[in-house]
Specification:
Layout: H1 14-22, E1 28-29, E2 33-40, H2 44-61, E3 63-69, H3 73-82, E4 89-92, H4 95-103, H5 131-135, E5 138-139, E6 142-143, E7 145-152, E8 155-158, H6 160-166, H7 174-186, H8 204-218, H9 220-227, H10 236-249, H11 258-264, H12 271-275, E9 284-285, H13 290-294, E10 308-311, E11 322-332, H14 337-346, H15 349-357, H16 376-387, E12 390-393, H17 395-398, H18 401-416, H19 421-436
Parallel strand pairs: 2-3, 2-4, 11-12
Antiparallel strand pairs: 1-2, 4-11, 5-6, 7-11, 8-9, 8-10
Helix pairs in contact: 2-15, 8-9, 8-10, 18-19
Length: 437
């Protein structure tokens, strides 16, 4: 694994520490150097990639980007907003978090900041971004954030070598995935690596499973109504999704390490088991970002040879072109010319091309050339994202924070004991009534 670099915010010049301690933002270091403070969830290799992206900006603008990375960035941000020392810019995990801060009056209006030259009035959009991506950063018709990184969620990852050694092929339909699930388990190895641990957000990888199932089993309309709190969790369609997931993963010998293994394994820690010469599992359901985690192993596995993907098979073939996506939203808490320049740069095709070249990242900017992606697998991911029939944002990230947290907890409880499904859905209904009532 790649060694984790010590974050710049953890040390450095005394002047920088004084800036952070005083709560001053986007200010000058000495007479000429401005600083933009950015808080986000990227650590390790992801943080290294972000620093590589902003390095040309720092050189050309004379502005320093002070990045603080934490897997608990949502909690860190809440604390800093609460004590009156928010960063200039913060990366939010989804529109639900964005809406909370926007409605509390904490965010800067970004309308017009990134409109391309000659954009029609009322159709503000980032240059190279489809309007659908721009809308993800809007609350009540006002733009408060921009998507700086995208990921495709609806994927099943596997090792071509390991499958080929057994004479198996990756599943291209739901029925084949169910059958292959039984075949692999009967051969004595768990089909699935599942990692649900993610600190205070533990459980979210399981929500991706359920979201893909709802989307491809019942379709985008049901998905939208469910996400908006207009369909009860105990309704037949949503209950069926949980049962479908349970039928695939809840039986003995299906999860590497059993239920305890799934509950205690970090979401990015399955690569060693999946890619090993003697694999402990053959499949992982994960977003496009996971390829970045695979690449950290040494010797570095080869995309398309040591790891590859297929689209998550649609439960109902009628919804085979529908995909779930996610994105990192960058919002402004303190307005300054330096912070505005950084946002403009990060959404540019040039910056996005650097980002995607590292692997594990997709760009929502259509002006990023396919040649910028590091390999054929990455280009296939990007093309899958751009060519999808129906694109829906991660449902849990769209839900109000209280509902999202309850969803995470329910996933963990269901994996621990699937027989509790009725009680868990009833609990989710109660939270839904409180949030949306």
């Amino acid at each position: 694994m790649t060694a984790r670099r010590r974050p710049a915010w953890a040390g450095g010049a005394l002047a920088l520490l004084m800036v952070a301690a005083s709560g001053l933002t986007a200010c000058s270091l000495g007479a000429s150097r401005e600083v933009v403070h950015v808080l986000g969830p990227w650590t390790g290799a992801e943080a290294d990639a972000f620093r590589e992206v902003v390095a040309p900006f720092e050189r050309e603008s004379g502005i320093t980007v002070d990045y603080q990375g934490s897997r608990e960035s949502d909690s860190v941000l809440a604390d800093r907003v609460g004590d009156g020392t928010p960063p200039d810019l913060a990366v939010l995990s989804g529109p639900g978090k964005l809406a909370k801060y926007a409605r509390a009056g904490r965010l800067v209006n970004l309308d017009g900041l990134l409109d391309p030259p000659g954009a029609p009035a009322g159709e503000a959009r980032q240059d190279g971004y489809d309007v659908g991506w721009t809308r993800l950063g809007a609350v009540g018709g006002t733009n408060y954030a921009v998507v700086v990184k995208a990921s495709l969620k609806s994927l099943v990852w596997y090792s071509p070598r390991s499958l080929g050694d057994k004479g198996w092929k990756p599943p291209e339909s739901w029925d084949r995935m169910v059958a292959l699930n039984r075949e692999v388990a009967a051969a004595g190895t768990a089909p699935w690596c599942v990692g649900l641990e993610s600190g205070s957000a533990s459980g979210w990888p399981g929500t991706d499973w359920l979201e893909d199932i709802v989307l491809t089993q019942s379709g985008p309309e049901v998905y939208d109504h469910w996400t908006a709190g207009e369909i009860a969790w105990s309704s037949p369609r949503i209950r069926l999704a949980w049962q479908t997931w349970g039928e695939l993963t809840a039986s003995g010998g299906v999860l590497r390490g059993g239920r305890g293994g799934a509950l205690n394994t970090g979401f990015g820690d399955n690569g060693g088991s999946l890619l090993a010469h003697n694999p402990q599992c053959y499949f992982e359901h994960a977003g496009s970002f996971i390829s970045g985690y695979y690449r950290q192993y040494r010797p570095e596995p080869k995309a398309g040879e040591d790891f590859d993907f297929v689209r998550f098979p649609a439960v109902d073939p009628a919804y085979g072109g529908d995909v779930e996506v996610a994105g990192d939203l960058l919002a402004m808490f303190h307005d300054s010319p330096a912070a505005r320049k950084l946002i403009g740069y990060l959404t540019s095709a040039d910056a996005q091309a650097i980002w995607v070249s590292r692997g594990g990242v997709l760009s929502p900017n259509r002006k990023v050339p396919m040649e910028a992606y590091p390999d054929g697998l990455s280009r296939r991911l990007a093309r899958t994202l751009l060519d999808a029939k129906a694109v829906r944002f991660d449902a849990s990230d769209l839900m109000p924070e209280q509902m999202q947290s309850a969803f995470y907890r329910a996933v963990l409880a269901y994996v621990d004991d699937p027989s509790r499904l009725d009680a868990l859905l009833a609990d989710l209904d109660r939270v839904q009534a409180t949030v949306h009532g």
